[in-house]
Design a protein that fits this description.
The complex is a heterotetramer of chains A (289), B (160), C (463) and D (340). Helices cover 37% and strands 27% of the residues of chain A. Chain A is α+β, with helices and mostly antiparallel strands and 289 residues long. In chain A, the strands form 4 sheets. Chain A has a 5-stranded antiparallel beta sheet, with helices on both faces. A 4-stranded antiparallel beta sheet of chain A has the order 11-12-13-14. A 3-stranded parallel beta sheet of chain A has the order 1-3-2, covered by helices on one side. In chain A, helix 10 runs antiparallel to helix 11 and helix 11 packs across helix 12. Chain B folds into 2 domains: 76 residues, Ubiquitin-like (UB roll); 68 residues, DNA polymerase, domain 1 (Orthogonal Bundle), CATH 1.10.150.120. Chain B is built from 5 helices and 5 strands, in the order ββαβββαααα. In chain B, helix 2 crosses helix 5. Chain D has 6 helices and 11 strands. Chain D is elongated, with a radius of gyration of 25 Å. In chain D, 67% of the residues are buried. Chain D folds into 2 domains: 159 residues, Aldehyde Oxidoreductase, domain 4 (2-Layer Sandwich); 140 residues, Aldehyde oxidase/xanthine dehydrogenase, molybdopterin binding domain (Aldehyde Oxidoreductase, domain 4, 2-Layer Sandwich), CATH 3.30.365. Chains in contact: A-B, A-C, A-D, B-C, B-D, C-D. The interface between C and D is large, with 130 and 136 residues.
């Protein structure tokens, strides 16, 4: 690692002022599972690293008037261990569980996963399918936006150098919404996603799809929604054929690339399969409720 | 320089290190606690696993400044002057380690698991060790040893 | 708001460092470690007879305690840390190496290039690998210079400041392409640097006796050993002109001879101490950085340590040979093999290393553990401008086994014979003659087939 | 959706170098109290070879594993050894150690014979005693004999010896010859589950039956087999070093070089095939490398059994398996060798 200064923030406000003070060549350090790797590979050469792991106001999981609030510093392990999330959002537990291994899940944070913004992030799809919103704090106060607006491109979000992600909120209307997440990686442990997918749905009258939201990871510059597939399903009867057709349509919503991990063509096959399977699993969850 | 004071294996320690020093370098180079190994330095191999505030983490992925005031347990903190830790004992009895380089990290991960879950399933043990790469053993004898140590720690079996 | 926050000092940049311990970011505190003095021993260690006992390993206890001292756990006073600059280009002439900026850096104790190495080549079969590339680069992981500095960080930054001018050459990466010898990796030598041939019986007659001919082409990939402990060495030159090397080398006696050759020194002036090696699998069977570290230690009068990064472990150590394997096998209706013809092409990478051995073993083993009267196996090993291949657990056997056992499976399915039965019919027995005509003893192929089948429950679900 | 299949791989593997001399030398010293020190130039690279070699020395001297301390791997102090390579340590170094221990033992027999009133060739070393064959009541503790050998007779009990496996050079034209002294044999059988829609292969279990001659330490032999299989699993379905167009590696790290984690390992059922090789130390051969040989074949044959797709090109990644399922022909055999 190259030399840098190190400073700790005790709160989100303090983090913002430290970032403003030392910017723009500063880096925010939370779980560090990505940042430290980048620092060691000299991908960043910051003057100052601002550690926010002591900012208690960025922690905690709670259900409030707005919905389910998860602080940006909530670790993947905390998500897996939270009784409310276990009960209501098994997809979030599963998504957290597929990240790295125990050690990295104990360090890595939800906010860090979203801010790092790699297309293959595992936290994104289930949250996006649940229409999650995020709160961003900067020198001029806070702003709220949909998760989709937060992502700009590979490794790029709307965050300015002096802003931090405060929290992630799943809106009240979606609490308990049947959701499933599936990830396909090159091995079972410590895998990066070739493709991941999440589907959230309610079952409408006459066993029809209602408010279906489908999200895909690792198949476009950022985590995306699959509107063609969603539109197709809305109001249709829940059948295996319709789920399979939604899978095919989801492929059209995606722009997978060829890389050394997999070909675009194989990724398209996976999108269809994973979309279909998450819809099916989410429907099963709905039936069990 | 960054000044840190932390508890390592129950004793308070202080050091003044460059800000870019990782927890792993702090342990190895400042305190000569070389049981935690550097295998990849980027959180893939788990050979540097230590317990920070009760949770197993990769020491290579934390900066020294982040552990100021925290509680760290390394492999050197498991055995007492009188005896091995039951996990260490089981790993020896089952010949769970071959070259041994991954061993401290694996044992710390196992401790992290058993501290939180005294009666894990085989699948839970595999999950807990999946952050610790091992090239020698195929993991099989490690899993058996963790199961055995868990029985001893639960009081179901007498220690050898 | 930020007043009560303690901001750590940053030394402006490494160029401005003063040569004080603190500015050079050296460690300051030494603390002892604890270990248990009383432990209970397992019975098997104390029993006689000793053979057959499930005796525990004394080193196993040290491993579990974190007390085993691998090379990287050993420190000497005033020790320097070395790093190597890697070419990053796979085939090129080296026009010039400018180390002046690196040498001028505070904290840098010495820089070494290939020209300073007395005999700049090594290798267990052919001495075709430079310790530090000086005239030509053969693959992207080649080291072109080494730096010893007071910290790894400074050594690394010094490597970045070494300027190397290359004249790129046309590379060849595909072993089949390399067979044409149009682009030579080590001119004037042929790319086909080793061949092997095993011939037995009458191949034409054997194929004529067959009722079925099976043909297939199989290929395997390049694989890294991934020892959890990266290669590591420490060199200390002493005032008597002897050098001691603590090394993760798995074969110290022959390694010492290799080092003596590169340093042009009598063997008795070199001492190699092997500690517990953190995983070998064939990947630590030859010297790597040791001669360069020895010379850096001589230049500085201080002990010098170098530990490969995980990336270097991939790009600068040996790997498992990719194979392309053509198999043609004649079989009778009842599943007896009458003839087999095998051609193997090995991607040998930039240097021979243990390729000759791999080629030989692969060729000898390529027909499988089966009685085959009529056999021809030919194998070729090719230079390419890729990471060198070498010894790895099985020396070519896993590759050919994948091919011959895949083909056995195809034969079984095509002829409708149970795969177990097909193997039992053809397997070696006590006294079988091997492809090289060797009469085999203590042969238990069939026992292993039966035992594995029984344990697996092969016959239980019908087939 | 998911189909199961089984497949086997069978193999043979030699011990030691191909024809080329690969000797080992060793020294065994019996201390005054009947414990012993073994001095060997081999290096412990994780296999547990020092434990096994100590067991061989102990067996020859009639003492226990714990009674032998092993000194290794210092070129100033330890004798020549070809090293930890070619699955040769138990066999070649082991043979040298047995011979060295025998020499030390013969000194003890010379000293003990007059003490027991018999000829040296009537003696054997067993259970930490030098005793008369066929009449074990007539015996002396090995420590007493060793002490007397050193302090009374003035002939300290030590022995040095070397061993090189006998081979016959291969004919350059036909390859006929005896390249190795001995071989081991093994079979591995895999059960897999293949997802027909994604091509993903899960290896569920592997049964392995390996020959190593006498298993000097069965626990360590099992460990070798289990570890070798994990490398085989990686070779079969995961691992591959990749290069870009300019010969630079694409995945030189453990994030993108995919090797098995604990979650990727199948259940292993390991058997040691009973055998005795008269040329090995106490009938032992070797086990290190052979364990990684048959796995990929067994797994790929199981994939074929499950979904009818043959993999010709390792590793059998999910993408390749799905392609093979879709084509079910030999279209993935792209690499042909040029005509002779």
């Amino acid at each position: 690692m190259r030399a840098f200064d190190f400073v700790s923030a005790e709160s989100a406000d303090q983090a913002v002022s430290l970032l403003s003070e030392h910017g723009p060549n500063v880096i925010v350090l939370a779980g560090g599972t990505d940042i430290l790797v980048d620092l060691k590979h000299a991908k960043h050469d910051p003057d100052v690293v601002v550690d926010i792991t002591r900012a208690d106001d960025l922690k905690g999981i709670e259900v409030n008037d707005e919905g389910l609030r998860m602080g940006a510093l909530v670790t993947h392990t905390e998500i897996m261990d939270d009784p409310y999330i276990q009960e209501n959002f098994p997809a979030l537990v599963h998504a957290a569980h597929t990240i790295g291994a125990v050690q990295t899940r104990n360090l890595g944070t939800l906010g860090g996963n979203l801010v790092t913004c790699v297309p293959s992030m595992d936290s994104g799809p289930a949250l996006m399918a649940l229409e999650a919103e995020v709160t961003v704090a900067g020198p001029d106060g806070t702003r709220r936006m949909d998760l989709e607006e937060f992502f700009v491109g590979p490794r790029k979000t709307v965050l300015e150098h002096n802003e931090v992600l405060l929290d992630v909120i799943i809106p009240k209307r979606n609490l308990g919404k049947p959701t499933d997440f599936l990830k396909f990686g090159l091995r079972k442990g410590q895998a990066l996603a070739l493709v991941n997918a999440a589907s959230a749905l309610w079952v409408g009258e006459g066993n029809t799809f209602k408010d279906v939201k489908i999200s895909l990871g690792a198949v476009a510059p950022t985590v995306i929604r699959a509107p063609a597939a969603e539109d197709f399903l809305e109001g249709r009867e829940i059948t295996p054929e319709n789920m399979a057709e939604a899978g095919r349509l989801a492929v059209e919503d995606a722009k997978p690339i060829d890389d050394f991990r997999a070909s675009a063509s194989y990724r398209r096959d996976l999108i269809a399969v994973l979309t279909k399977r998450t819809l099916d699993n989410a429907y099963r969850l709905a039936q069990n409720d | 320089m960054t000044d840190v004071t932390l508890t390592i294996n129950g004793e308070e320690r202080s050091a003044s290190v460059p800000p870019e020093t990782s927890l792993l370098r702090l342990l190895r180079d400042e305190f000569y606690l070389t049981g935690s190994k550097l295998g990849c330095d980027v959180g893939d191999c788990g050979a540097c696993t230590v317990i920070v505030d009760g949770m197993p983490v990769n020491a290579c992925l934390m900066l020294a400044g982040q552990v100021d005031g925290r509680d760290v347990v390394t492999i050197e903190g498991l055995a007492t002057l009188e005896d091995l830790h039951p996990i260490q004992k089981a790993f020896e009895e089952f010949a769970s380690l071959q070259c041994g380089f991954c061993g401290p990290g694996v044992i710390i991960s196992a401790k992290g698991l058993l501290d939180r879950n005294p009666d894990p399933t085989k699948e839970e043990i595999k999950d807990a060790l999946s952050g610790n790469l091992c090239r020698c053993t195929g993991y099989t004898k490690m899993i058996e040893a963790v199961q055995d140590a868990a029985r001893i720690l639960r009081g179901e079996k007498e220690a050898a | 708001m930020t007043d009560d926050v303690k901001v750590a000092d940053k030394t402006d940049s490494l160029t401005d460092l003063k040569e004080t311990d603190e500015d050079l970011r050296l460690p300051s505190v030494v603390e002892p470690a604890h270990f248990p003095v009383e432990t209970i021993d397992t019975e098997a260690r104390h029993q006689t007879p000793a053979v057959g006992q499930r005796a525990t390993r004394p080193d196993g206890r040290l491993h579990g305690l974190g007390q085993t001292k691998y090379i990287d756990d050993i420190t000497f006073p005033n020790m320097l840390f070395a790093k190597m600059k890697r070419a990053g280009i796979s085939s090129a002439l080296i026009k010039s190496i400018d180390t002046s900026e690196a040498e001028a850096m505070p904290g840098v104790a010495a820089v070494l290039t290939g020209k300073e190495i007395p005999v700049n080549s090594y290798g267990p079969s052919y001495q075709d690998q430079p310790v530090l590339a000086d005239e030509r680069v053969f693959h992207a992981g080649d080291p072109v210079a080494a730096v010893a500095a007071v910290t790894e960080q400074i050594a690394e930054e010094a490597c970045e400041r070494i300027k190397v001018e290359y004249e790129p050459l046309e590379p060849v990466y595909d072993p089949v392409e390399a067979m044409k010898d149009e682009i030579k990796v080590h001119p004037p030598h042929s790319n086909i640097y080793a061949t092997k041939r095993i011939k037995k019986g009458d191949l034409e007659k054997g194929f004529a006796e067959a009722d079925h001919i099976f043909e297939g082409v199989y290929s395997t990939q390049m694989i890294e050993h991934v020892p959890l402990e990266p290669h590591a060495s420490i060199a200390q030159w002493d005032p008597n002109g002897r050098v001691t090397l603590w090394s993760s080398l798995g074969r110290i006696t022959l390694g010492r001879a290799d080092i003596a050759r590169t340093l042009d020194m009598p063997i008795n002036k070199i001492r190699i101490v092997g500690t517990i090696v953190g995983g070998n699998f064939g990947g630590k069977n030859e010297i790597t950085t040791e001669p360069a570290l020895a010379l850096l230690s001589r230049k500085t009068g201080r002990p010098v340590k170098m530990v490969y990064t995980r990336e270097e472990e991939f790009i600068a150590s040996t790997t498992r040979h990719p194979f392309i394997m053509e198999y043609k096998t004649g079989v009778t209706d009842d599943g007896m093999i009458t003839a087999r013809k095998v051609r193997l092409v090995l991607d040998g990478g930039a240097y021979c290393s243990w390729s000759e051995t791999t080629l030989g073993k692969a060729c000898i083993l390529s027909a499988g553990p089966y009685n085959i009267e009529n056999l021809l196996a030919e194998a070729y090993c090719m230079y390419t401008n890729k990471t060198m291949t070498g010894a790895m657990r099985g020396f070519g056997a896993p590759q050919v086994c994948f091919a011959y056992e895949s083909q056995m499976d195809e034969i079984a399915h095509k002829l409708g014979i149970d795969p177990l039965e097909l193997r039992m019919k053809n397997a070696f027995h006590e006294g079988s003659a091997s492809p090289t005509g060797q009469v085999l003893q203590s042969v238990v192929v069939k026992d292993s087939l039966e035992k594995a089948a029984e344990r697996f429950g092969w016959k239980e679900d019908g087939q | 959706m998911k189909k199961r299949g089984k497949g086997m791989g069978c193999m043979w593997y030699p011990i030691g170098f191909t024809v080329m001399a690969n000797p080992s030398a060793a020294t065994v010293k019996v201390n005054e109290d009947g414990t012993a020190t073994l001095i060997t130039g081999t290096v412990e690279t994780g296999q547990g070879s020092l434990t096994v070699l100590g067991q061989i020395a102990a067996e020859e001297l009639g003492i226990s594993t714990d009674d032998v301390h092993v000194v290794s791997a210092d070129t100033d102090a330890t004798p020549m050894d070809t090293g930890a390579i070619a699955s040769r340590t138990t066999y070649v170094t082991g043979n040298a150690i047995q011979l060295a221990a025998e020499k030390a033992k013969n000194i003890l027999f010379e000293v003990a014979a007059p003490m027991l009133g018999v000829r040296p060739n009537q003696l054997e070393a067993k259970d930490r005693q030098i005793q008369v064959k066929g009449f074990p009541q007539s015996c002396l503790p090995i420590g007493e004999v060793a002490a007397h050998a050193q302090n009374g007779a003035g002939t300290p009990a030590l022995g040095s010896a070397s061993y090189n496996p006998p081979t016959v050079a291969m004919d350059p034209e036909t390859g006929q010859g005896k390249p190795f002294s001995t071989y081991v044999y093994a079979t591995q059988i895999a059960e897999v589950e293949v997802d027909e829609e994604t091509g993903e292969v899960e290896v569920l279990r592997i049964a392995a039956a390996h020959d190593c001659g006498t298993a000097i330490n069965p626990m360590l032999v099992e460990g070798q087999i289990q570890g070798g299989i994990s490398m085989g699993v990686g070779m079969a379905i995961q691992e591959e070093m990749l290069f870009d167009d300019e010969g630079r590696q694409i995945n030189p790290n453990l994030t993108n070089y995919i090797m098995p984690t604990s979650l990727d390992m199948p259940d292993l059922e390991v058997d040691i095939v009973e055998n005795f090789d008269p040329t090995g130390p106490f009938g032992a051969k070797g086990v290190g490398e052979p364990t990684a040989v048959a796995t990929s074949a067994a797994i790929c044959n199981a994939i074929y059994d499950a979904v009818g797709a043959r993999i010709y090109n390792l590793p059998a990644t999910a993408e390749k398996v799905l392609a093979a399922i879709k084509s079910k022909d030999r279209s993935d055999r792209q690499k042909y060798l040029p005509a002779e």
